Amino acid sequence: IPTCTLKATGEMSTEEYFGTDVIISFASYQDVNTDDLQVSGIKDYGIGSTTGNRFVVQTEDSVDGVTYTGYIEDRAGNIGTCSITVKRKAEFVLTYNNNGGTGCTTKAVIYNNAVGDLCIPTRSGYSFMGWFSNESLTNSINSSTIFKNEYTDVYAKWKANNYKVTFNANGGSVGTSNITVTYDSAYGTLPNPTRSGYTFKGWYTDVAEGTLITNTTIVSTAKDHTLYARWTPNIYTLTYNNNGGTGCTSKSVTYNSDYGTLCTPTRTGYTFLGWYTACLLYTSDAADDLIGV
Question: What is the DSSP string of 142-157?
Answer without folding.
Answer: -TTPBP-SS-SEEEEE
